[in-house]
Structures are given as C-alpha cells and as structure tokens.
Specification:
CATH class: Mainly Alpha
Largest sheet: none
Oligomer: single chain
CATH topology: Leucine-rich Repeat Variant
Number of helices: 6
Mean pLDDT: 94
Radius of gyration: 12 Å
Helix content: 55-70%
Distance between the termini: 32 Å
Strand content: under 5%
Structural class: mainly alpha
Length: 94
C-alpha cells in the first residue's frame, strides 16, 4: 500500500470531519486511475454520517467518478443507502 493510500485509509476512519472528507475526496481528479473499490468503500463506510460536508463530499466524489464509469456509480448508488444529498449529487449529470 502506498503512503498516500495508507494515510487516506487512516483519514477515512477518523472522527475528525475534515480528515474524513479529505479521504473521500482525495481521488477526485484521478479519472481512470481511480481505485473504485476504495472510493466506494470510503463512501459506504460514511454513508450514514450526519454532517452536511461529508454527505456533500460523498456525492461530489461519486459524481466526478461517474464521468469515468457511470454504470459503476449507478450500481453503487442503487445498492447503498445514501443520504438524499449524496444520491442527488452523485447522479446529477447521469
């Protein structure tokens, strides 16, 4: 595991809001190089988070990845109990 991946994994489990948000968003511009399994895991792990900024980050990260793999994002959204905000953001351009 690369140092970045290890740090992101640690951040994703943090109780600190901004570290968690950073973990969710860290692959935002990776496009085809996105580790989709990691992205979906981080989003699913925090899907029930009550904070607006976490829910918005989940939707934003999924929406950005949807430009690369729309079918995978649709499937993830269908199978995951996301907040309305995360769901709307993820599917915004699909």
């Amino acid at each position: 595991m690369s140092e970045k991946a290890g740090l992101a994994a640690t951040f994703s489990q943090s109780d600190e809001l901004w570290l968690t948000r950073t973990a969710i968003l860290h692959q935002l511009r990776y496009k085809g190089a996105t580790d989709a399994a990691r992205l979906f895991r981080y989003c699913a792990d925090r899907a029930d988070h009550r904070d607006f900024f976490i829910r918005k980050a989940i939707g934003w990260a999924l929406r950005e990845y949807a430009y690369t793999d729309p079918a995978a994002v649709r499937k993830f959204v269908e199978q995951t109990d996301l907040s309305g905000l995360s769901r709307r953001e993820a599917l915004k351009h699909l």
